[in-house]
Amino acid sequence: MKIFTYRWFVVLIYLLFTSNLLAAETQEGIFWQIKKSGVSPSYIFGTIHSEDTRVNKLPKKIRTYFDKADSVSLEMLLDMPTMLKASAAMLFTDEQTLDKVIDAELFAKVSKILVEYQVPEIIAKKLKPWAVIATLSTPPPESGDFLDLFLYKEAMKLEIDVYGLEKVEEQLAVFEELPLENQILLLKETVENIDEMPAMFAKLHELYLKRNLTELQNFSIEYMLKNSKNKSLTKKFYKRIVDNRNITMVDRMAKRLQEGNAFIAVGALHLPGEQGILKMLENKGYKIKSIY
To answer: What is the pLDDT at residue 148?
Structure first.
């Protein structure tokens, strides 16, 4: 039985961040001040995993705070050891290969599509089904400089201390623990719906550029529920990939907030909603103010 459908799974991977339920109040802005008495204000920036030149650089209003920050925290460190772990996790390490676990027709289609992502067939054979879905959940790479990586590189240039709010193993576990049969079902739907991708990417960018977190959140949730074949299991998975991660990230950013003048960057849709990071910080006594 399917746990969820391809369409909303791709939204989650592409953004890797959403909040809980349809927002009751409007939250506008992708850059927020986090302030508490006795501590220098910190700032949190909602990102999107994209190479699009409209979103993968810092606006001047945000850049000023970034350059002066005492620390930068990302969802996870994007250093070489982390990238190597992530890359290794995408590959079968036993005798299994993708062309053995899916039928020949599907593998042929997958191989053809992956050529656009500069993935040769010899590598395609070693990819796990979820890894193919993750690859296809973003447009074909051009520069390779998506927003989070840009922030990491810039922080290193400025010699700002960089921290990760999650371990790569924690992020990957959400997908690694999907049963293989569900991964294969999702992969089939990914291939069947590949022509929808450009329109979906365009809509996500449009909403992100409007900087209305509530609208972006509502779109992703409505999209998820509309396309789910098993809403109960979908919501359970959603809670794990979103709400539970919000709790973890708020706990781990606490030290940086106590130090003050921290710059924190997480996926934009981790921010809004009753169980979003902004609300959690308010409940901990912080004053939250939209800057941009």
So the answer is: 92
pTM above 0.90, yes or no: no
SS3 92: coil
Most distant pair of Cα atoms in the chain: their distance: 63
CA distances to 13, 71, 251 from 244, rounded to whole Å, are 16, 24, 11
1-54 pLDDT, tens digit per residue, is 333 444 445 555 555 433 344 445 679 999 999 999 999 999 999 999 888 888
How far apart CA 2 and CA 192 sit, in angstroms, is: 16
Closest CA to 9 of 218, 241, 204, 217: 241
How many residues in the chain? 292
Q: What SS3 class is residue 218?
A: helix
Strand 39-47 relative to strand 31-36: parallel, antiparallel, unpaired?
antiparallel
Segment 49-75 mean pLDDT: 93
CA-CA distances (angstroms) from residue 52 to 49, 83, 202, 264, 291? Answer: 9, 21, 10, 21, 22
